[in-house]
Amino acid sequence: MLPKDPVILLSYVNTKLRDEYESLSELCGALDADEMQIRETLAALHYEYDAGRNQFV
Q: Which among 16, 42, 41, 18 has a CA at the least distance from the CA of 30?
């Protein structure tokens, strides 16, 4: 289950991307998470996924 708090979600997702997954889609598939929901939640904090860096920036 992913954290509900957007700031904690940002930290959690970026850590998972850095340590365990090669892409956001791989992370979402493994965790059965909704990629668009993650993107929208973090976009509200002005963060977008950068595939080249494999993190939200």
A: 16
